């Protein structure tokens, strides 16, 4: 949700900022803007639409300057237009600011500023920050960093900020609370961004700001950080980390889109998420990141899984795997609901938060609630160094590599892999799984990358099915047991990138209402792989056929019953029932992808969405 980039050094800032914005565009893409320090004035350019539009607009403009800030927006307050695009400047034009997050008390702050005679140009919450900081600076006669510290102590909400001031052109002030912000340094240069993507081409050495940190970057000086929650405002020692990212990972690598690249990366992503964690010869699964809290997990009376969107679907799959193998109750919660419903949490609960980005605001809030109630809080995330990774007590990275397409694909299969490993390791130690079952499952896990590759070979066949689905206004996705979350995920993928209305249901549930929608225009995508309830699914398929629905099925190789009843059928390799989602979700990703391409949709940047939902 909004990407921010800033630069201070001795090179031209503009090319670094605009390239940085391109790399962050997945975080929001309804408007973009840049401000450059030119001598003692701030030059600002903003445009509605994508970063390319901003760049074309700037082509004829003066773009020089060795310091600058830039922003790509996902609108929260105020429609996407140039007035609401960032940067925002103070009335006298001396301060420019970019912001990712939400200022929750902006209305009361705005009221106060209006009463003091401040004129607002936009409808955004952000604009209050720039006026507030300027007012504090004027009233208190303090430096910009001190004014920022004072102003932020009046602010409720979340922010990642970068601020330029004409009073000190060799300085950049940054601040963070609840939204991510990194500072990279190399020699006499500073690179600031919402994530590592804009920085990695320049340096691997980064500092992740903590909540409440205000950083001052000055040419020729080391980074200075203070925290607004420290009453004495003592200087903190910046802690440097290595970026685990390569430039190659941020490119499309010959694919038309990031999403297709990421779908095809799944054999590797799943393999990487298992690397070093399974020893087939010794029949051992171990996840290094959770060892310290393993005993707590073994003693858990309940697992509470919190997540959003696709990660929530991975949590639902985990519910089946954990309950079946570990024999401990599991509750899977939308983080956004969990955080506001005064949940009952005990100290012997283990809360597992799942997030690709590690920056989803609701998931992070659920983590805080878990910690407050004394639960053991474990994270599963993809982005190294993300807030989730730092705010949980222990956890496991999925190691899927950067996911840039807005629709999540490889992160899902990697999450399910890690959750399956976690369940297997706990089940073995608790003695809730037989030796043979354990061996069968880890042996099957090892073959999943190869099975996914076999599904990917069917791309052309799936493309033909997509031709049919692309002409339909609606679609139903059905599955039972562990395939029910697969149905939900298939429907989510289709609706979010092709804008076809789609619903996922447990197959038996449709009799309780949704079957009323079925007629000869309705494609019904059924996941009917080999599973305990296969015969029941066959009956559900018959009920749909009786109402003239069109069946598109995902079945196990060699299937006859469902295949015979299907207009289109996708066969996937035989997989252990609990691990089926790892393979069965892949054809549905390809189906959604090709439907979206046929319908001429922007697959990597679907309308109204953004990748990292760092606001509520
Ligand atoms: C759907 C999708 C979203 C995310 C959700 C959570 O394709 O990508 O539903 O899964 O916004 O994001 P993370 O996993 O980053 O917490």
Layout: helices, strands, pairs:
Elements: E1 3-8, H1 13-24, E2 31-38, E3 41-48, H2 51-58, E4 67-73, E5 88-89, E6 95-100, H3 106-115, H4 126-140, H5 144-152, E7 159-165, E8 171-177, E9 182-186, E10 189-193, E11 205-208, E12 213-218, E13 224-227, E14 240-242, H6 258-264, H7 266-274, E15 278-279, E16 284-285, H8 294-299, E17 302-307, H9 309-325, E18 330-334, H10 335-338, E19 349-355, H11 361-372, E20 376-381, H12 387-391, E21 394-397, H13 410-430, H14 435-456, H15 459-469, E22 474-479, H16 484-498, E23 501-506, E24 523-528, H17 534-546, E25 550-556, H18 561-565, E26 568-572, H19 580-598
Parallel strand pairs: 17-18, 17-19, 19-20, 20-21, 22-23, 22-24, 24-25, 25-26
Antiparallel strand pairs: 1-4, 1-10, 2-3, 2-4, 5-6, 6-7, 7-8, 8-12, 9-10, 9-11, 11-14, 12-13, 15-16
What are the key terms here?
616 residues, alpha/beta, 8-stranded antiparallel β-sheet, 6-stranded antiparallel β-sheet, 19 helices, 26 strands, 36% helix, 23% strand, binds fructose -6-phosphate
């Amino acid at each position: 949700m909004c990407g921010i980039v800033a630069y201070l050094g001795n090179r031209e800032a503009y090319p670094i900022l605009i390239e940085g914005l391109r790399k962050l565009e997945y975080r929001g893409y309804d408007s973009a803007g840049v401000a450059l320090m030119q001598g003692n004035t701030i030059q600002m350019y903003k445009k509605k639409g994508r970063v390319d539009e901003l760049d074309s607009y700037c082509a004829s403009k003066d773009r020089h300057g060795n310091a600058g800030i830039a922003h790509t927006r996902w609108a929260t307050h105020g429609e996407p237009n140039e007035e609401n695009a960032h940067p925002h400047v103070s009335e006298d034009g001396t301060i420019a600011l970019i912001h990712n997050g939400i200022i929750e008390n902006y209305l009361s702050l705005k009221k106060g500023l209006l009463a003091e005679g401040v004129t607002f140009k936009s409808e955004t919450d952000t604009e209050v920050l720039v006026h507030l900081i300027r007012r504090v600076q004027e009233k208190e006669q303090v430096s910009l960093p001190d004014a920022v510290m004072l102003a932020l102590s009046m602010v409720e909400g979340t922010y990642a900020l970068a601020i330029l001031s004409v009073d000190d052109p060799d300085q950049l002030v940054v601040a963070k609370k609840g939204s991510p912000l990194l500072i990279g340094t190399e020699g006499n240069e500073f690179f600031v961004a919402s994530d590592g993507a804009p920085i990695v081409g320049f340096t691997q050495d980064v500092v992740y700001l903590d909540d409440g940190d205000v950083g001052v970057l000055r040419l020729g000086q080391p980074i200075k950080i203070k925290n607004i929650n420290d009453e004495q405002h003592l200087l903190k020692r910046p802690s440097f980390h290595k970026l685990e990212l390569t430039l190659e990972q941020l490119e499309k690598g010959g694919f038309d889109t990031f999403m297709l690249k990421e779908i095809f990366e799944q054999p590797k992503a799943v393999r990487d998420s298992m690397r070093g964690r399974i020893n087939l010869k010794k029949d051992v699964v171990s996840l290094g990141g959770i060892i310290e809290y393993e005993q707590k997990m073994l003693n858990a009376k309940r697992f509470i899984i919190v997540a959003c969107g696709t990660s929530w679907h991975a949590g639902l799959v985990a519910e089946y795997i954990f309950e079946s193998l570990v024999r401990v109750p599991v509750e899977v919660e939308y983080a956004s609901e969990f955080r506001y419903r005064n949940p009952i949490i005990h100290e012997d609960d283990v809360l597992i938060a799942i997030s690709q980005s590690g920056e989803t605001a609701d998931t992070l809030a659920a983590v805080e609630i878990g910690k407050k109630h004394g639960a053991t809080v474990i994270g599963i995330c993809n982005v190294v160094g993300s807030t989730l990774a730092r705010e949980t007590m222990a956890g496991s990275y999925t190691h899927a590599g950067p996911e840039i397409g807005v629709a999540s694909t490889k992160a899902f299969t990697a999450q399910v892999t890690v959750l399956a490993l976690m369940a297997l390791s706990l089940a073995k130690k608790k003695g809730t799984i037989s030796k043979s079952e354990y061996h069968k499952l880890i042996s099957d896990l090892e073959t999943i990358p190869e099975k996914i590759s076999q599904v990917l070979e069917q791309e052309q066949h799936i493309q033909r099915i997509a031709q049919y689905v692309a002409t339909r206004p609606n679609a139903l996705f059905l599955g039972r047991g562990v395939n029910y979350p697969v149905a939900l995920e298939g429907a989510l993928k289709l609706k979010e990138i092709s804008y076809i209305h789609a619903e996922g249901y447990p197959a038996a549930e449709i009799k309780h209402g949704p079957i009323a929608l079925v007629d000869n225009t309705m494609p019904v995508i059924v996941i009917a792989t080999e599973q305990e309830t296969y015969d029941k699914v066959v009956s559900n398929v018959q009920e749909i056929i009786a109402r003239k629905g069109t069946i598109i099925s995902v079945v196990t190789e060699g299937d006859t019953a469902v295949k015979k009843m299907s207009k289109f059928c996708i066969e996937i390799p035989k997989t252990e029932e609990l691990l089926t989602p790892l393979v069965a979700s892949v054809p549905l990703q390809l189906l959604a992808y090709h439907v979206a391409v046929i319908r001429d949709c922007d697959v990597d940047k679907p309308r109204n969405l953004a990748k990292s939902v760092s606001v509520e």
